[in-house]
Amino acid sequence: MKRFLGLILVMLCTSVSANDSLQSTVDAYFSTYAKRTDFETFMAFYAEEATLKDVVYGYVAKNKAQIASFFDWSSGQFSTLDSQPTLTITQQMINQHSVVTKGTFNVFSFNGKTMGPWEFVIWQEFNASGKIVLQEDWINYTPKKIMVGE
Q1: 2-148 — its CATH code?
Q2: Domain boundaries, the chain
Q3: Cα→Cα distances 103→48, 77, 130, 139, 145, Å
Q4: What is the DSSP letter of 33?
Q5: Which SUPFAM superfamilies match (predicted)?
Q6: Once rounded to an integer, what is the mean pLDDT over residues 89-95?
């Protein structure tokens, strides 16, 4: 019985430690994303074989190079408005290797057009090395006509 209880305690501590490690990774990812100044660090969170799906936009990137091309922070003129970070997180859930993050992309300017705020839900799956292997972005692009032609 003592062995059984000891085993359960070890498993719980390991699970908490793994979630703490993933939480640290996710915190660093979204902090880097919110600042939007270090693209190399941002891309380092993705595994080489990662997949990114932008569900509303209808785009799928099938590897890290395609993800980098999709995000490409050097393309266009981007600036945040009202001294806000690029994004704000309102809710987050972590379970083993999965993270669901809800928040808002704050108002910003891109190529002279004011856009946002856009609510989002980002679902991410991480591998054992703590790299993103799957990401699904659900972003409420508005005005939708600008982004997806509707």
Answers
A1: 3.10.450.50
A2: 2-148
A3: 26, 23, 22, 10, 22
A4: H
A5: NTF2-like
A6: 97
